[in-house]
């Protein structure tokens, strides 16, 4: 490994933002990109969100794709760091993609609305982070508005998400009385002026809180800050980088994204503390980013901008070595060599052809249906990265063909779309139904539209009384047989042959789990 390679790995930060809709993810993303000098892109983030809000029908999504493909990965530089921000769709198009993106990041940023505390979608995304012990930094947003008491928000995070909080900044008042933050990480005071940007260099260095300048600057709120900090020293956890890197502690910043307040303060700490690309697990061994041979895995597949080409882009995260344009790599699942001639790297402003990419970077590979989620590409050794799962669907539909002569096309379409990871396909044990499962409902519209345009299939959906699913397994063959027999009506095979239990409610599922202690019920399933 060359010195340069090590340097390139160490200066990379690949992360995603987790939040509930409206907490301020789009606003924060824009501000982050502005610091990275990616100004054009910032406009596109907003445009994308506007398009999403306008309508959620598939046609407009097609038009919107131009933006959405490029903004799936946003690359920018900050100080000496090269940052890859992976978009985690969190709105109407909330889907498995959102979850899977989190398998390709080294850390995450959690945005919380100070008036709302922890909300449902944040909780779900956090579950995925926990599976991989992803380190999480927290930004508590909208301090320019009245909200919950800062200590109550921290308690909420600790309780609901089971992660220790370590405040690195502390707010001085909120809403109309919001005066700024005291940065505990750097011992600096930043004063808030609504509508005006505050850069970290504008902050006043105050090592000692008894400094009378504090009273001059904050008036009566100086004493409030002193009391708060004293209280924190006794009650809050000190920041421990190791705890953070293990995913047990989240450093917390306060601010207001829309006013660009506290954002750069957090970004500064983020690039310093967040992990560089981490080793990745394969079936055979752990792969270090510092290794010379190239390797990477596909975590997302997205329909391309040009529907006429039916071309899709596979998003590959580089895990080791250096990617060079035109290099020949092995596509292990199908045992073929492919030349990555026209891979795309995702730059902030534009999609440009990649010359070189390093671990932590994401490249886009054009794909005519041969690439599946979870596929590994490498230049020598046969590897198979693990930890890129399917997630238990929460929405279900039965597909009914309008023209029964098209059964073959339907089967082919559903099989391919399921392989691509766009939806999960289940075939019940007791009948020949096609049941689709998805994490977000919008996925169903996408599938119907693609069935029609790409496979010429006219079909419709019927509601079906399932609300949740688990993949099932058992060491004891006899017991498993018994379980299968008794629960036939609720069992189905997924597209890779995995057996799943579909339940009409969480309560039903819980009841079955209780009744069958020998059976293991999995919420996720690895791709073969
Ligand atoms: P997303 O849904 O998480 O991407 O959230 P957005 O970034 O679109 O923000 C949702 C709403 O909150 C928008 O109306 C923003 O203008 C507003 N917002 C974002 N940040 C702040 C903030 O710091 N203070 C206030 N008062 N509003 C904010």
Low-confidence blocks of residues: 53-70
- Percent helix, as a range, is 25-40%
Shape: globular
Class by SSE composition: alpha+beta
Give the strand line-up of the largest sheet: 18-17-23-14-15-22-19-20
Q: How many E strands?
A: 33
pLDDT average, as an integer? 87
CATH topology of the largest domain: Rossmann fold
In whole angstroms, the N-to-C terminal distance is 31 Å
Ions, cofactors and other ligands present here are: guanosine-5'-diphosphate
Domain Tr-type G: 10-278
Binding site for GTP: 19-26, 87-91, 141-144
Pfam family, one: RF3_C
Subcellular location: Cytoplasm
Q: What are the key terms here?
A:
eight-stranded antiparallel sheet; Rossmann fold; alpha+beta; 528 residues; Alpha-Beta Plaits; binds guanosine-5'-diphosphate; 33 strands; 3 domains
Annotate the secondary structure layout.
Layout (H helix, E strand, L loop, with lengths): L2 H8 L1 E8 L5 H11 L3 H16 L3 H13 L2 E6 L2 E6 L9 H6 L5 E7 L6 H12 L4 E6 L8 H12 L2 E4 L1 E4 L7 E4 L4 E4 L12 E2 L7 H6 L2 H15 L5 H5 L3 E6 L8 H11 L6 E2 L4 E2 L7 E9 L8 E9 L2 E2 L3 E4 L4 E4 L4 E3 L4 E3 L2 E2 L4 E6 L8 E3 L10 E3 L3 E7 L5 H14 L3 E5 L5 E5 L3 H14 L3 E5 L4 E6 L3 H10 L4 E4 L4 E5 L2 H10 L4 E3 L1 E3 L2
Helix pairs in contact: 2-3, 3-4, 12-13
The protein binds guanosine-5'-diphosphate.
